[in-house]
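User: Hi! I'm working on a homework problem where we have to compare a predicted structure to a textbook description. Could you give me the structure for the chain below?
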Amino acid sequence: SWEWMREEKAGDKTAYSHCSTAANALIPFATGDFAFYGSIEKMNEVIPPTAFVDRIIAEGSADYFGISPAKNHPHNNL
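Assistant: Happy to help. Predicted structure tokens:
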């Protein structure tokens, strides 16, 4: 899929950026602890969506399992 996206990047950089952001935001769902996202200039495309997904997971765990996140969890900082 990334080979296809590289070809599409030439025509639509916005679509490539959104797909890249979505792929990185999925990392917490796969229990990933970190993401490689390229240059520091790209961090605003990756960090906020990933933190948002992490918060969704924390809220779902609290609601479904009754597990509260730790005090230093990003859920409590957003």
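For your comparison, note the following. Helices lie at 2-9, 13-25, 43-65. The first helix runs from residue 2 to 9. Good luck with the assignment!
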